[in-house]
Design a protein that fits this description.
The complex is a heterodimer.
Chain A: H1 2-24, E1 27-31, E2 34-40, E3 45-53, H2 66-76, H3 84-94, E4 97-102, E5 106-114, H4 118-130, H5 136-155, H6 157-169, H7 183-188, H8 191-201, E6 207-213, H9 217-227, E7 249-255, E8 261-267, H10 277-298, E9 303-310, E10 316-323, H11 326-343, H12 347-364, H13 368-381, H14 385-396, H15 399-409, E11 413-419
Parallel strand pairs in A: 2-6, 7-11
Antiparallel strand pairs in A: 1-2, 3-5, 3-6, 4-5, 8-10, 8-11, 9-10
Chain B: E1 2-5, H1 13-26, H2 32-39, E2 43-51, E3 58-65, H3 70-83, H4 92-109, H5 113-126, H6 129-133, H7 135-140, H8 144-154, E4 160-162, H9 168-174
Antiparallel strand pairs in B: 1-3, 1-4, 2-3
Classes of the chains: A alpha+beta, B alpha+beta.
Chain lengths: 432, 186
């Protein structure tokens, strides 16, 4: 009898766990033609993002920055119901954060507030999406801030080099356009440009909504139906890119009077939807470990070298480090890559990488904003399920898959150097 | 940046609550400070912060002046500091908003577990766990007169340390040494 009770108790506990997991599982549904991805959470903070697909594919290079400007203006410059100061005062009152941004593959308008004031937050958020005012005075103030922010961004050597590398590696593709724009393009953007651009991307078939927080499918459906159902519905096709093939070694030098050298390298990477993607990311973690150990702690050749794979519609491998011995550090990085491609990872090493990878992923998911970010980017690059399935995919990867992926996709590098030109005098880049 | 020596939890626990409320009023869009500096175009942005610690809390006022109006901006900053304890400088609504924002801040701090443990240990080291757990109740007791007394005790006409970070060309062009300098001793 006692044993039966224990078995029953265990069954009930397991059932409760399964139910709790099912209740908190990510789900996707459609409301009035708008795709919604919802991850319930017991946290008292709610995060909502309306994503606009396309990013830099949505405008011509001479309008660089227009989408980022338009989404920030929609989120921050007010509506007829909440003019600029009313918007900011209400945000202050309930500690509601609205923001907008656009990058290479997509843009979004984001709401972050606590559950208690979700109604107030949603009202402002939905109004910003549907009725942005693009008030002249507010837009001008924002333009000044964007131009100033651009200067700050470019004054950071890492950012400057990263932008230069994107422009060169992805020359001839939309990725060569800086989504933040330049001082010249931002100053040329008019209110009419903002209105036209925003109107072109406000489309039920282009957008999707990601929500994480303590709410329900019913509450969300009701809110979306009441506030966003009048959004236009137009035909839309996602961008279909052909990534450039990087199978040789090239060096780009940007001479600047810096006391240390900044170096970045880019190589090909599998698409996020490819079965090679997760094994490849694990392989790059192994490479990061080796680079840090051999070049930083042992060789003293580079500071914080690391390698990662940037998940985009055109994914790319990047390696970054700073050094005061660039002529020695670059060949040393190449040697480390070739060595790893040759020897690969073993079961023990891979398991340690997997554990660290999954832990980092869980840490990133602690905040509801982290959850919507991961789900949103996964939906843009492959499908939202990828974000949910990541821990399982990581544990399924084998050393053979990792080693094969490293050898398949890394066949050449585009190198970028920013620093004192004397440090690179007479340097010949070894072929990979 | 202007820094004042503020209250600490060893000597003046009560003023630490007023310090938080006051900082959260000045950073509101509707504050007189924001209107005088940011909305007027004299500054791109401002922040006002107080860090609760056990030994010598610091009050930090950061101003990002409009590069074209640095002199006017700094003059307005001094004018505003002189008004901080005026009867009409803070409204009842701003005080309530500040308290609500601080309450929400505490909810937000609980969101990320790995950060929350750091927060708890910070409060344990800076004051006590009871300080943290009773924080909101004590915050609710703060009145306008407490805020004015805090300003008079720690900010207005009190010693401060100020710094200006500016590029060399603009410094020479504006001759900042003529207006960014320590006031004459009384």
């Amino acid at each position: 009898m006692k044993r039966s009770l224990i078995v029953l108790l265990i069954l009930l506990v397991n059932l409760a766990t399964v139910c709790a997991q099912a209740t908190n599982a990510t789900r996707s549904f459609t409301v009035s033609g708008i795709k919604v991805i919802f991850k319930p959470s017991a946290k008292n903070v709610i995060n909502v993002r309306v994503y606009y697909r396309g990013g830099v594919a949505n405008y011509d290079p001479d309008k660089a920055g227009v989408e980022n400007f338009a989404l920030q203006a929609a989120a921050l410059c007010g509506t007829p119901k909440y003019p600029g100061n009313a918007l900011r005062d209400t945000s202050d009152k309930y500690d509601i954060f609205l923001s907008g941004i656009s990058s290479l593959d997509c843009g979004y308008i984001q709401l972050n507030c606590i559950s208690k004031y979700f109604n107030q937050g949603w009202d402002m958020f939905a109004d910003a999406i549907m009725n942005p005012a693009f008030d002249a005075k507010e837009v001008q103030l924002l333009k000044n801030k964007l131009v100033a922010a651009g200067k700050v961004e470019q004054s950071n050597s890492h950012n400057h080099l990263a932008q230069l590398m994107l422009q060169n590696t992805f020359k001839g593709t939309p990725y060569a356009v800086n989504p933040s724009g330049t001082e010249e393009t931002l100053n040329a953007i008019t209110i009419d440009d903002l209105k036209k651009h925003y109107s072109s991307i406000l489309n039920k078939n282009r957008i999707f909504i990601v929500v994480a927080g303590n709410t329900t499918t019913a509450e969300l459906s009701e809110k979306i139906l009441a506030t966003l159902s009048n959004m236009p519905s137009k035909e839309y096709s996602k961008p279909d890119y052909e990534p450039p093939v990087l199978n040789d070694s090239k060096l780009l030098i940007d001479k600047q009077a810096t006391s240390i050298s900044f170096i970045q390298a880019m190589a090909n990477a599998p698409a996020v939807s490819s079965p090679d993607y997760v094994p490849f990311r694990l392989g790059l973690s192994a490479l990061s470990n080796n680079l840090y150990y051999n070049l930083d702690t042992q060789g003293k050749l580079a500071l914080y070298p690391f390698a990662n794979c940037v998940p985009r519609l055109m994914s790319v491998t990047q390696i970054l480090f700073t050094t005061n011995q660039p002529q020695e550090a670059i060949p040393a990085v190449m040697k480390n890559i070739r060595q790893l491609q040759k020897t690969g990872v073993n079961d023990d090493w891979l398991m340690r990488i997997k554990n660290s990878f999954v832990l980092s992923n869980f840490i990133g998911e602690q905040s509801v904003a982290g959850v919507t970010d991961m789900l949103g980017m996964a939906e843009i690059t492959s499908g939202w399920q990828y974000a949910d399935d990541l821990p399982q995919l990581v544990y399924m990867a084998t050393p053979e898959q990792v080693n094969k992926a490293l050898n398949t996709y890394i066949n050449g590098f585009k190198w970028g150097y920013l620093g004192n030109s004397n440090a690179m005098e007479n340097f010949t880049l070894p072929q990979f | 940046m202007i820094d004042w020596r503020g209250p600490d939890t060893r000597h003046d626990l009560q003023s630490t609550y007023a310090a938080d409320v006051f900082s959260y009023i000045l950073t509101q869009n509707s504050s007189k400070l924001n209107k005088a500096l940011v909305q007027s175009g004299l500054a791109v942005g401002t922040s006002f912060n107080y860090l609760t610690v056990s030994h010598g809390g610091i009050i930090t006022f950061i101003i990002q002046p409009n590069p074209q109006k640095i002199k006017e901006c700094l003059a307005e900053v001094q004018k505003q500091i002189g008004l901080f304890d005026a009867d009409d400088y803070l409204t009842a609504e701003q005080i309530e908003n500040a308290k609500r924002k601080l309450e929400i801040k505490q909810v937000r701090e609980e969101e990320i577990t790995s950060n929350y443990v750091h927060g708890l240990s910070f409060w344990w080291a800076s004051a006590s766990l009871n300080y943290y757990f009773n924080y909101l109740d004590n915050l609710k007791k703060v009145k306008k007169i407490d805020l004015q007394n805090y300003v008079r005790k720690y900010i207005k006409s009190k010693p401060y340390c100020a710094g200006l970070l500016i590029n060399t060309d603009l410094k020479a062009q504006l001759n900042t040494d003529t207006f960014f300098k320590a006031p004459a001793k009384p």
